[in-house]
Amino acid sequence: MSKIAYLIAKEDWDAIIELKATEPLMKMLDNLDKSEDRWFDDRTYPDAIFALGKIGDAKAVDFLIKYLKIGLNRWPSGGDEIRASAARALGGKLPDEYGRVFGIGDIRAIQPLIEAISDEVDEVRENVATALGAFGEKAVGPLAKLLDKGVITSMPKEDFDETGDWQWDDIRLNTIEALIYTNSKLAVEPLIKILKDDGPFTVYNEKGKKLKVCDNDWKGRALAAKKLGEFGDVRAVEALIGVLSDNEVCASAARVLGEIGDKRALEPLREALKSTDNDMRLEAACSLGLMDDPNGINILITEYKASEKKERKKIKNMLKKISPKKVGAELENLELLDDAEEWYTSAGILDKAAEMRKKKADMGAAKVSQKIVQGDEITKTEIKDSVLNRSTVGGGSSKIQEMKELKEMFDSGFITKEEMEKMKKEILNG
User: Most CB within 10 Å of its CB: which of 156, 192, 227, 387?
Assistant: First the structure.
């Protein structure tokens, strides 16, 4: 028995990879295919295919393509992991978890992988998307062409009739993810098209026959918006502004406009602050803060002070995206010196934190609390009226203080949540 045959018998895959034993591995899999005792759920298949991907020899491309359909449509059973392994082995070269390059990366595999993106199994599609994405710009054109058309499936009619729209939504989403994974600037225009397209998409069979029309899922459009923000490409600005009025993706668009930072977005984002969608308002405020509009920071601080603990964490994370000096400066402008000191300290801006302590000492600052003075009872109605009356005087600083007092009244159980929300609206609109 030769050394390679011995290693294959032992299934010592690392040693086989080291020897780059492509042809012996393919012969072993051929023999396994012919064996009456073989089972497609045997670990040998995915392990051997994985080894071929590690070796990265282009001689294995045509051989591996056939495994993209093993076990498809439920027969023979046990093929899901084989298809997933074959997809990843055929994909573009990417480092594995140990930093070693994995994947053959031959362009002959792109079209078979495009066809495999409609696999019925999530794990397989995810591996196909990763494999296609690793080809970079070479995969952009074929993926964009497929997305323009819709979804193409080889599923038998009897199985297709049992499917729901959500399954085809998932397939389309994986195709969009593959386009995103290319990380190529060539994907910008196709992603803009996806973002703007809120219409339905069509499912076809391999012969081009129309099988089904499905409603578009907003998740793919939101993913497209996110990636456009990562690219920071100004070509996306007009499209992103255009969907600020689209309830499905408005919050994503508002967030991404701040990341791109194009000044054309300032007025549309200021207009978005009037939205009744709270997520949209907060994202618009954050983006304005990123674009040096202090009003955006002011709104985030005001909302933070008036919000409950769960919402506060989200808003604090938004504030952390903005320059800490700018957030601190706005806290100072609002005369929230305790908060400004804490903010500067957490950001490591210790000289400014010390300056806040000195300011408080100079002002003889003291925390204000509701009290009953000289035994006189102050009624709940009087306190509420006092808070609301004072909120109509002055600017942001006054409103911030009233919001703070309002929150303290709620935390102490002095007013109900419903009363707090009503009063909050009156203060903000006052």
Answer: 227
